[in-house]
Structure formats: C-alpha cells, structure tokens
C-alpha cells in the first residue's frame, strides 16, 4: 500500500505464518511511513520453497527507520528464570510436539538438502539460546527390537521466543543424511539417516517426540552487553548462532540490549549452500558497527596457498585480530562437524607459535575464563 501523507510513531502488525496467514502476528514499533520509500518488512531466504512473506507483506516505509526497528516478543516471563531449563522431558517420557512447517533452505546447486523445521511445543518445552532438543523418530530401534529409536540431538536455531515470537515454537536446522555406495554410487535408502529423513519428510500437523532442552556449554553470556562473540560454524552448525543473532539484532528484549561485536564465520561448499544468508546480510546492513560476517566457500574459493577455502583459512586471514579480541575477553564458539576442529586447532596453534605464544597455555586460559565454547557432532 502507498500512503500520500506521512505518518509517524505508528505500530503495525503483519502476518508471519509461512502460508501468509495471520496465525502469528509481529508488532513493529515506531515505523515511519513515507510516500516513496518502499521495502519489505521481512526478508526471508529466497531459496526456500515457500518463505514468501516478503511478497505478501510489502509496505512503504522510511527504510532507515524500518531497518533498525525490532520485533516485540512475548511472554517476557521467559526472561525471568535464573536457572537454565534442563531436561524437562526425558527419553522415557518425551513431549509430543507438532510440526508447523518444513522448508528447504538451500539452492539447487547445494550438495545435499538442508531444511528449516519449525516445531510447536505450545510453550511447554522452554529453552535458552544455544541449547538443543532431542528428537525420537517413530519406529523401532533395529538394534533393540521392541524399543524406540535412540534420541538424536539438534541445536535449536531460534531464540526462546521462536520464529513466531510468542514463545511457543522452536526451529531446527537439519541436513538430510543420505548414504551412497562408494562402489556403485547408488543411494542406499536402508542406510539413510532415520531421524533427519523423518524430519525433512515431515508435513505440517505431524507429531514429533522431543526431549530436553539440554546443554549449557553454548549458552550465550549476557552479563556484558558490550562483549565480543566470535562464532565459527560449518554447515548446520550455524543453528545456535541464528538464535544468538536474532536475539541481538531482531528482537526487542527489554532486559538485553546488545551493543558489542558479533562476528560470524560460516564454512559451506558453495553459494547455494549458505544458510540464512539473507537474514545475516540484513544484520550486516543494519548493524555494521556490531556485526561482521565472513564466508568460506570451499568449492568456489581458494585459500592463499591455492587450495580449497575452508573456515580455518578464513580464521587464519584474521588471526591477528582474533587473537587480540581473545586477549581482551572475547568469547569464541565452534559448532559443526567434529572434522572441523583438528584443522582449526592446527591453525590456531600455528598462529600462536608465530606470535611467540604457547597455544596449550592460551587454550587452558580461555577455558578457565569460560571464553571457549565447543559443540561438535
């Protein structure tokens, strides 16, 4: 819609349901409308099949004002507990939640499929940013006839308020696990990942058994709103960082006003494999003084030695700055496949030695100061 008369200090509510419905509403505070400045309030990943809110919810507004507006969240009672919620539901008595949506969030040239999955827990399984849910896929454990499948852990990719900002949902970032015979190159469905395929194949309304929340090592420290957070991920390891960044830059949380530096390093195969890229690019545009975003595309970029560009190569590029930030108290986080850590550790050790430092002593100090956070799988 276009307005010929400027309005100021106006609140609007827009639909955020993935189907364009008004199941969930967000309130944007202090939006100034003008005649010519038109933009979409929400910019969701264009690679998704049906994240089309931006086509349906376009309004005209002052772009500068709108870009810095934050979303109201509820219930604020979720800020009240002092103790971390842990293991509210266990494998023997899981909570039955409901699938809200399953969306492919990678492009056609990405190797494999990654999905963004929204789960409705109706506010009964609260969690904090950086925690994980366990998922029990339906069916029988082939190694234990008559018993359910083992729990699979997934880092939560949303804030405690969920993608609908009402505290009733949680989001997971799941890569479909497939197995290909090394000799024939043919897919073997019998060896496919049971839980990831269940989740990626799920439909809205399907039931899912969840446990948790679990984990404390990746919790976002909020005692210092001016702190520096260096986040390193490969692939779906970006999940907890999406929650951090939404809390820092998207949500209007009265008790947490971030004014520090958040620096994301993300390693994936190619441009089509980037996860939540438009969301992160939006933060970079709106908060350039508080957010940095570096990508390592192993199949598209070369490192300084002419080899594939991995996330550890990006870390090496900025190693002096990273070490100085760590010396000044920055938190550093690692999340992704276990295979990422040896290369990263080797890089950090080499850089430390070039600086005349002992990496072993430095790592010990980082752990002692609770600056070092690792969750790999």
Characteristic key phrases:
FNR; 377 residues; six-stranded antiparallel β-sheet; disordered N terminus; globular; five-stranded parallel β-sheet; FNR_nucleotide-bd; Elongation Factor Tu (Ef-tu), domain 3; Rossmann fold; alpha/beta; 9 helices; transit peptide; ferredoxin-NADP+ reductase activity
Order of helices and strands: EEEHEHEEEEEEHEEHEEHEHHEHHE
| Number of individual domains | 2
Give the overall silhouette: globular
First-to-last CA distance: 47 Å
Number of distinct beta strands: 17
What's the number of helices?
A: 9
Residue ranges: pLDDT <50 for 5 or more in a row? 1-67
Reported for the largest beta sheet, the result is:
6 strands, antiparallel
β-sheet strand percentage: 25-35%
If you consult CATH, what is the topology of the largest domain?
A: Rossmann fold
- Any guess at the CATH architecture of the largest domain? 3-Layer(aba) Sandwich
Write the layout of secondary structure elements.
Blueprint: E1 7-15, E2 25-33, E3 38-40, H1 53-56, E4 58-60, H2 63-68, E5 71-72, E6 95-104, E7 114-120, E8 132-136, E9 152-155, E10 169-175, H3 194-201, E11 207-214, E12 228-234, H4 239-250, E13 251-252, E14 261-268, H5 277-286, E15 291-297, H6 311-317, H7 319-327, E16 331-336, H8 340-354, H9 359-368, E17 372-376
Parallel strand pairs: 5-13, 12-14, 12-16, 14-15, 16-17
Antiparallel strand pairs: 1-2, 3-4, 6-7, 6-11, 7-10, 8-9, 8-11
Helix pairs in contact: 6-8
């Amino acid at each position: 819609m276009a307005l010929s008369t400027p309005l100021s200090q106006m609140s609007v509510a827009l639909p955020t349901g993935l189907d364009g419905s008004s199941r969930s509403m967000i309130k944007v505070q202090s939006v100034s409308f003008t005649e010519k400045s038109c933009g979409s309030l929400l910019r969701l990943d264009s690679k998704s099949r049906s994240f089309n809110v931006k086509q349906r919810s376009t309004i005209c507004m002052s772009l500068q004002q709108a870009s810095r507006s934050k979303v109201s969240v509820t219930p604020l009672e979720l800020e009240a507990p002092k103790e971390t919620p842990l293991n509210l539901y266990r494998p023997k008595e899981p909570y039955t939640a409901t699938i809200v949506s399953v969306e492919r969030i990678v492009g056609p040239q990405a190797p494999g499929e990654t999905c963004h999955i929204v789960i409705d827990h109706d506010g009964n399984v609260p969690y904090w940013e950086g925690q994980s849910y366990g998922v029990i896929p339906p069916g029988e454990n082939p190694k234990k006839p008559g018993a359910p499948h083992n729990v699979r852990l997934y880092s939560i990719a949303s804030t405690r308020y969920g993608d609908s900002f009402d505290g009733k949902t949680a989001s997971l970032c799941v890569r479909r696990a497939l197995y290909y015979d090394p000799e024939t190159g043919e897919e073997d469905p019998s060896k496919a990942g049971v839980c990831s395929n269940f989740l990626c194949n799920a439909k809205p309304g399907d039931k899912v058994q969840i446990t948790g929340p679990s984990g404390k090592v990746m919790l976002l420290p909020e005692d210092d709103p001016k702190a520096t957070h260096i986040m390193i991920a490969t692939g779906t390891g970006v999940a907890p960082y999406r929650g951090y960044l939404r809390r820092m830059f998207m949500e209007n949380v009265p008790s947490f006003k971030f004014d520090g530096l958040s620096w994301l390093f993300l390693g994936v195969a190619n441009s089509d494999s980037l996860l939540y890229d438009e969301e992160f690019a939006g933060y970079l545009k709106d908060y350039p003084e508080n957010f940095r975003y570096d990508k390592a595309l192993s199949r598209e970029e070369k490192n300084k030695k002419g080899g594939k560009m991995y996330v550890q190569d990006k870390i090496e590029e900025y190693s002096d700055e990273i070490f100085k930030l760590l010396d000044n108290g920055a938190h550093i986080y690692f999340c992704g496949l276990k295979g990422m850590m040896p290369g990263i550790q080797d890089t950090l050790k080499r850089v430390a030695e070039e600086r005349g430092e002992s990496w072993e002593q430095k790592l010990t100090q980082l752990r002692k100061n609770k600056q070092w956070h690792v969750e790999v799988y």
